[in-house]
Design brief:
Aminopeptidase
Length: 152
């Protein structure tokens, strides 16, 4: 697959339907197996990511088909302004063909043009994305811990 067939675009809330379709197709399949059957919850989640004042969303197209999305926000931090990526996904059937590498490169370039100095993201250890990010020169923050607590 030639990279000349890919197109990189900044997206917004007008692309929500296509983003939701791709999101569900990727994250309800292995290895994630997330349950996104509650369409209202899905709409709210995507809205939270792409419709806020500091939201920054990028899309990757193969011709006219959306095959990759990065959703996050611009955050101002003491060491400079960063792109905090909440979700980054590539259509399952085109993974492992170099599109993720190409897409990350385009995201870095676009963020640099916006004056951003860091990319930040979280992923689960043991998932394929973990090794992918390491290969793309993301550094693991070993002195940080993610916490969660279920409210009962």
């Amino acid at each position: 697959m030639s990279h000349e067939n890919y197109c990189f675009k900044q997206l917004d809330k007008n692309n929500a339907a296509a983003i939701m379709n791709l999101f569900v197709s990727v994250f309800t399949a292995p290895p994630w197996n997330d349950d996104w059957s509650d369409k209202n919850q899905l709409q709210l989640y995507i809205h939270d990511l792409i419709s806020q004042p500091n939201s920054l969303t990028f899309g990757c197209y193969l011709e006219t088909e959306l095959i990759g999305v990065s959703m996050g926000q611009i955050r101002h931090w003491y060491s400079g302004t960063e792109y905090y990526i909440n979700e980054l996904l590539i259509k399952t059937s085109v993974q492992r063909k170099g599109i993720g590498i190409w897409f990350i490169g385009k995201i870095e370039k676009a963020c640099k043009e916006l004056g951003l100095v860091h990319l930040f993201l979280l992923t689960e250890k043991g998932m394929p994305a973990y090794e992918f990010y390491k290969k793309q020169n993301f550094l693991e923050c070993t002195d940080c811990a993610a916490f969660t607590k279920k409210i009962q």
